[in-house]
Structure formats: C-alpha cells, structure tokens
Amino acid sequence: METGIPGLSWDELKLKGFKVHELSASVDVPVRTGRRDFYKMGLVYGDMTIDQDGRLVEVKGAFLIFVNPAVPHSIVRRINRISGYACIFTESFISSREMKDSPLFRVGDSPVIPLDSDEALFMQGIFHKMLTAYNGDYPHKGDLIKSCIALVIHEALRLQPSQQTTPLRNGTGRITHLFMDLLERQFPIERSNDPLRYRNPQAFAKVLAVHVNYLNRAVKEVTGKPTSTHIAARITAEAKALLKHTDWNVADIAYALGFEYPAYFNNYFKRVTGTTPNSFRKV
C-alpha cells in the first residue's frame, strides 16, 4: 500500500517506523487531500499554499511544517522547485502521549513556522544529522532520530509558542476548546475492541458537566458549526483512515466507531460519503 510519498510504501514505514529524506526539487509530489496515518515534519525552502482543514496558509522562503494525520490536508505547489528535508514517522515510533501533548501536533495550531536565515541554518543541521543517521549503519539510529525530532519540536515551540496556550477569554471559548480537545483525544483508534466512547453531543455534555444546549450554542458561536457536525466529520475521517490503512473488516470498524450493528455503519457511511465502506476501500 502506498503512502502518497514517492518512494515510500506503507509496509516499509510500518516496519521501520520512520523515514528521513531530502526533498527532490524535480519530483512532482502527488497532491492529495485527506488523512494519512503518519506524522510528518519538514524543513522546506519554497513557495506554496497549504490547505489545512479548509484553512489556507501562504508560505514563502524557509519554514518548518508539521503534518498531523488527524487533520485533512493537502499541499499545493506554487512553483515547480522546492528543497529541504522531511522526516516521516508513525505514532508508534514516538509515544502517543508525547505526540498528543505536543502543541505543534494539536489540531488547532498553525502547521507552519517561518524561519529567518540563522534559524533555517540551525534546523538544516538537525535534519542533515537525521538524514545521515538514517542512511548510515549506526545501530541506535532510531534513538538518535527520536532525539532530533524532540529537538526540532522544542526549538519550534521556542520560536512560535502554541496558539492554544493563549488564555480563553470567555466561557463559550473555554467549553469549545474542552469539547474539541476531548473529541480529538479519542483518536486515532488503535484497537477494534476498544470502541469510541463519545459519539453525540449529549455524551460530550455529560463529561464536560454542562447542559447539551449550552454546549451546542457555545460550539456554534465559536466555530460556526454545530457540535454534531464536528463529531460526524471526525468519525467519518477516522472511518476512512481505518478502511484505507488497516486490514480490519467492516464489522470491526463499525464496532470500533461505536455503531451497534455493521448495517448502521454502512448506512451512515453511504449517507455521508455517497459510497459504501467496501466500495471506498477498493478505490
């Protein structure tokens, strides 16, 4: 199974847990919107537009980019040539808690951090060290690359603190943040026998100790979308990821997503996407 990255198969990534490569200026990387089941961080020199979950980010020059598999994204080239480095890794390569606790990998933050010439030169040294280790025969290259990833994250946080560390000014903003965080912490689903706990606004409201009407009003006021829309979009994204990136049967995926019967999941998926789970998996 292909990952959408030239020269990298999903089987290879699962086996090693990580890959480091230099960006090719001449290769036209396929533009693809949707979730991929790996994290990516890169040092890029170029000019492009990044569409992250419907938010367009214009970038030019040197910048760091962080890709979270929970957020549908695509990268649109604005010029034919770019350069830089990329490090791709599975969630199992670095602990789930470390990934989810890092502000740079949270859903609400900008995926891009611009760099000046000195910052770019420093980051280039780190990525070059990762690439050298990856291509070498050092027996502990995995540990070395983990340390480099941690260093990049901490340097990035120093350059641009998380947007989500800004105090929330009112109750609606706070409850919306708590809702979005609780929703996201349920994913990705790693075991088919550990089903989704919260699937509707009532369940989230109960955990957050607020009335469901208040939760709905707050989320709609802050995000412009109803609570149920956020939940449905996230469940649908997870369903697509499980269909594409696991060998679980449709019944297991249905139960993992909290559907009581596979038929309910089939009907839901077809209503939302216009196709059946089995047909989507074959595309």
UniProtKB/TrEMBL annotation:
Q: Keyword Transcription regulation: yes or no?
A: yes
Q: Which PROSITE patterns match?
A: HTH_ARAC_FAMILY_2
**Where is each HTH araC/xylS-type domain found?**
204-283
**Keyword terms of this UniProt record:** DNA-binding, Transcription, Transcription regulation
GO MF entries: DNA-binding transcription factor activity; sequence-specific DNA binding
Task: Give one Pfam family, short name only.
Answer: HTH_18
Q: Which domain of life is it from?
A: Bacteria
InterPro entries, alphabetized:
Homeodomain-like_sf, HTH_AraC, Tscrpt_reg_AraC-type_HTH
Glycoprotein recorded as keyword = no
Protein name per Swiss-Prot or TrEMBL: Helix-turn-helix-domain containing protein AraC type
